[in-house]
Amino acid sequence: NYIMSGSESPEAEGEDCNAPSEEIIQLGRFMKHQKNWRNDTKLSVKNFPVTGRGLISQRDIPMDSEIIDLPFDALISLKTISDDGEFMVILAQVTGEMRWKVQTLLTLYLFWNWHLGDKSPWKEYLRSLPLHLSHPHFCTVDELMAMPVVSERIIDSVNQSEVKEVQKYFENVSCPCCGVKFFPDLFPKRKFIEFYLICNSRTVYVPPDTVRLMLRGTRILRMISNDPNMALAPFLDLFNHSGDTKTMCSLARKGTEYFYTLKTSSSFKRGQQIFINYGPHCNMKLLIEYGFFLPGNYNEFIDVTLKDVEDLAKNLRRTHKNLHIPSNKFRYIRDHNLQDKMFFDADGFSHNLSTVLHFLFVDGNVFENHYHPVVFGQLPEEQNLTQYKGQLINLLLERYNDSLRNLQKLERLSDSGRIVKDFLKCRISFMNDCLNKMN
């Protein structure tokens, strides 16, 4: 249950591996000599046919044991930013009453260090980052236009208003080391989005209360709008994802220092790739946030929006002339947040989705004072909903098939486009399986 794209098979995992790149070797030396990482679990990097680079250990890793233990100062966190005097001067120039999201600050900090080049204290880490991202954000314009089922989600994943806000606050600020304006000269929009996605896909969760304790009384805490619950973790971010394991993290003081520790629920043999679990994500979330997906994903589900249900209602009105749905039913759904958690998975339809389908297409009440017992009472018999559930899946299948056909018509696909094509095939297969279970 792990893979980086749909074109290869995880069975290839046991094949011979290539040596790590010079950039990764330098990163390991940097972590050991400058960040005082002891590497007690004897981790090293290998290149695997399916996942690309990943981590192994030179010894067996038992169940429920540590796989990595990093000094907290080896992570790029809000504390790192607070300790960087030069960057804090830049932030002070632009912040004013502005409150930043922690992810945005980490993005700006990565950006700043990228600009510093060889002068950056994190240059070894920056050089180890992938040169090309596989996220669907980097599909060509033609590819994005061909696949609305994915491109609509891309727009939501990078907060465009946040990008504009960063540009607005930095547009009149010049770099102290070269005098050039930050936006758009030093920090072009596309590059900002790249670093935003790097932060989004490579950060780890850190307990925010512990970070706040470390930063008690500092200016940086007055500059943020959300919890300081994320950090970039050099070397640790080389672990690949698997749904077959569970991962536990902790941030605790050992002697005079804080250490960030990961434990795994699984055991790994010497030389076997070690996986961690990024979270119980469906394939759409994995694709948008990490740039890959998992065939056979145990956590796969298909989100359904209220617009999808409204489109189903339009289709049904064309074939069922007597179907009448009072408009206040859709308002009632929104007012009571019934559109939240509407999805289906291998086990069936979510409670909210079943409730909404019954409320709109089966229940005949037209007076609002009768809605509450219908919506919040006992769900109806399954057979009353089967046809509507099948029609909803077919509606979504049609959209996915249209996107797939549109992509296949293009003469050439980018690397990101090929991953999306395989993702669409995987989702179509999953929805067909869901449909077959109902018949």
Automatic annotation (TrEMBL):
Signal peptide: none annotated. SUPFAM superfamilies: SET domain (SSF82199). Keywords: Methyltransferase, Transferase. Residues 41-279 form the SET domain. GO terms for molecular function: protein-lysine N-methyltransferase activity. InterPro entries: SET_dom (IPR001214), SET_dom_sf (IPR046341), SETD3_SETD6_MTase (IPR050600), SETD4_SET (IPR044429). Transmembrane segments: none annotated. GO terms for biological process: methylation. The keyword Methyltransferase applies. Gene3D superfamilies: set domain protein methyltransferase, domain 1 (3.90.1410.10). PANTHER family: SET DOMAIN-CONTAINING PROTEIN 4, UNCHARACTERIZED PUTATIVE METHYLTRANSFERASE. This is Putative ribosomal lysine n-methyltransferase set11.
